[in-house]
Design brief:
heterodimer; A: about 200 residues; mainly alpha; Rna Polymerase Sigma Factor, Chain: A; Arc Repressor Mutant, subunit A; 9 helices; B: about 170 residues; 7 helices; 3 strands; disordered C terminus
């Protein structure tokens, strides 16, 4: 895929519109998914995704192939999406990143895991949880949404997240911890209900 | 609890992301801490869900107009916004070089309001200096030093009477 991307990039640099078109088609949905995770609003994410490709086209001459095209493109996507959120809502309250004792309260409940019972690959529950993920994600502050999306959708490592977001690796880990805890809290009411239904045998499975 | 504070952020790490020593300590802690084991199980449930959910939303959206919208925006957007007009826009062998330079300079001022403002301020400053020097029928007053200091956004005229601030930053609109 990488070599193929680079060949398309070279052709796009020399002015072949079809080559750039192929790159857009290849990555449009994933760029949109990242944008949606960060900006929340589907229409804004649609505009952001377009903007990402416009900027990528404008910056193609500067792409030297030191990273994969995919990495370069998603770096642009992250910046455009974060900028867009900040423009929309202005500066937000900066939540602390470190982990404190109060953050570990209720840590032992494990309601989501209990909801899945002994089968962590319970596809039905995963699908049902999946339907609620976007709205749960939308309740998180921008920095927690962003880091979770980059980790989960782009699959970035701690090191890559630190580099992309300009923060220390330790901050990456604690920020991810907070992001996950908030997601779990947002999903907990649903998972708890379903867990109770499972115990009562009301699932009909 | 202190150990939990140390290990909780490491939960959800992938293989190779923690130094080997840290990874071993985390594994040992998880084996004896039910609270952190629960956190780990919760993290495992979430693993992949965010990605699946967002990609499913993207897959459900109609992307058929997307690429054409991008390409039409690309056509409307200049390749790179440059401060100076592109040299290729000017014929290389323009005989009347003076006229050839004035036009792009005026065009540049028309596009860039900050530069236009700075240019206007500089013109007014120059006119002020000229009037100050040639006041009283052109008989210049004795001036110890004549120096325009543009640092810090101020336009200051140094005279024998001391510095005269011609333009403060907010007056120049910058």
């Amino acid at each position: 895929m990488d070599g193929d991307d680079l060949a398309l990039v070279e052709r796009a640099k020399s002015g072949e519109t079809d080559a750039f078109r192929a790159l857009v088609v290849r990555y449009q949905r994933k760029v949109y998914a990242v944008a949606l995770g960060i900006v929340k609003d589907p229409d804004l994410a649609w505009d952001v995704a377009q903007d990402v490709f416009v900027r990528a086209h404008r910056g193609l001459e500067g792409f030297k192939g030191e990273s994969s095209f995919f990495t370069w493109l998603f770096r642009i996507a992250t910046h455009v999406a974060i900028d867009s959120v900040r423009k929309e809502r202005g500066a937000q309250r900066d939540d602390v990143d470190e982990v404190r004792e109060c953050d570990l309260v209720d840590a032992g409940e494990g309601i989501l895991a209990t909801g899945l019972g002994s089968d962590p690959s319970d596809t039905l529950l995963r699908r049902e949880l999946g339907l609620r993920i976007a709205s749960a994600l939308a309740t998180l502050p921008e920095k927690h949404r962003t880091i979770l999306v980059l980790r989960e959708v782009e699959g970035l490592s701690y090191e890559e997240l630190a580099d992309r977001l300009g923060i220390h690796k330790g901050t990456v880990m604690s920020r991810l911890f907070h992001a996950r805890r908030k997601m779990q809290a947002a999903l907990r009411p649903y998972a708890g209900t379903r867990s109770a239904r499972r115990r009562d045998g009301g699932d009909g499975e | 609890m202190r150990a939990c504070l140390r290990f909780a952020p490491m939960i959800g790490s992938r293989e190779g992301e923690l130094p080997a020593e840290e990874a071993r300590s985390l594994a040992a802690h998880l084996s004896e801490c039910p609270s952190c084991r629960a956190l780990s199980a919760e993290a495992a449930v979430l693993e992949g869900l965010v990605s699946e959910a967002l990609l499913a939303k993207a897959a459900a959206r109609d992307f058929s107009p997307f690429v054409d919208l991008v390409l039409s925006r690309v056509e409307r957007t200049p390749a790179r916004r440059s401060l100076w007009p592109r040299a290729t826009a000017l014929p290389r062998s323009t005989p009347a070089r003076g006229r050839g330079l004035a036009r792009p300079f005026l065009a540049l001022l028309a596009r860039n309001w900050k530069l236009a403002t700075a240019f206007a301020v500089a013109l007014v400053a120059a006119a002020s200096v000229f009037m100050y020097v040639h006041r009283d029928n052109g008989e210049p007053e004795e001036i110890a030093s004549l120096e325009i200091d543009l640092e810090g956004g101020d336009t200051v005229l140094q005279t024998s009477d001391g510095p005269v601030v011609l333009f403060a930053p907010d007056e120049s609109g910058s």
